[in-house]
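Q: Sequence in, structure out?
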Amino acid sequence: MSANLDGYEAVIGLEIHVQLRTRTKMFCGCELSFGDDPNVHTCPVCLAHPGSLPTLNEQAVRYGIQIGLALGCEIAPRSIFHRKNYFYPDNPKAYQISQYDIPLARNGRLGDVRIHRVHLEEDAAKLIHVGESGRIHGSDASLVDFNRGGTPLVEIVTEPDLRDAASAREWLQLLRSTIKAIGASDVNMEEGSLRCDANVSIRPAGSQELGTKTELKNMNSFRFLERGIEAELERQVALARAGEPIEQETLHFDPRTGTLTPLRSKEYAHDYRYFPEPDLVPLAPSKELLDEARASLPELPAQRLERYQSELGIPEAQAKLLAYDGELGDYFEAAVGAGTEASAKGLANWITGDLTARLREAAGEEGEVHAADSRVTPQAIAELVAMVEAKQVTAQAGREVLAKLVAEGGSPAEIVEREGLASISDSGELEGIVAAAIEADPDAAAKVREGNMKAIGPLVGYVMRETKGRADGGEVTRLIRKQLGLG
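A: Exactly. Output:
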């Protein structure tokens, strides 16, 4: 449900941190890991021992350039690293190596959202709050796992071009699928390899001035991002209507309770006392590196969306589902290329509709089962859709076949044969069942004769029950009208 913004307009920008899928950390040779024992992937560099010096990860630079190019950015001919100074337990150096006034890339666009900048930096360590309320033996305490410290990050900052929470969610899904298509990250939000902060403000409708913004930190799912933004918009509108000021601050959204909690006042750039990193030389990508990165880009989700709509005629909503979910799009592509007579539009409809719903229903509380991991092969769904479009089975019978495929796999043709689900091809048999339907419900038949076509439903339903869904609905309607003298 959208926030009530009557008289106000939302202004939303996103800051996204993406952990890059390199073998080692950003500035040292420690291997990356997820789920290993704490503090087993550390060295003097990532633990900030005196005298240790950073060395830039070349693969991280390649991935950063690919992401910048995929977002339509200008790649800086020369960028530099800075020290972002802050004191916190997850940061052993008391500064983070990042980029400030000369980032790797800037001035891009993805969909309708402009990209302000894309830059490289290192991740912080992981804080673990132990015990109830973070208490150990009666004392407040947190532990630090430095395995994550130094992980290569790309930070993507958008312009404040989003105007509602649903659009923010959809755009982040597009960004995630774009980065995943490149292969630069697994973008697993549950494991923290994609984290999103939202900058949220409101202004009077029609105004061009920006209001005071707040920052929602570390939204770790698309649904929580949307809910968090909605909650913050409602809070800001309530303050504005009450004549109270909106303070610039950082907030935490609790998805369990739907509440917002202040974390700290929002920092400004000067609070971090940025200055150039003296231990790293400027980054100047060669023409060969840029050409190689550009040539290695695959078809990106936005391009796939355009192709699905313009070349295959798939409606926008279905095309977005297929284009923005890389695995589902690949499954669809495999079904289109399976060598059947199934149409692309028909396949898109069945895959994004009935198949996805069946798989979600079958998974229950255990989580989503992806089409590519199901018992329904692309070949099988293509054969089933081709049979439905050729009227060898009805859509209703096709859904029964699909249920069998989801449960046990196999061949659609064999299931149709075994279960007796083939469409009735004997017109004489079907005419007899239609006549029986009219005889069984003379009131409905009389209403149809009088022009009330809504009354045809019980007659059609009778035929469908008698044929167990094997009759074509359009043909049944035609025969009913014919036998009632309506042409």
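The mean pLDDT is 90.
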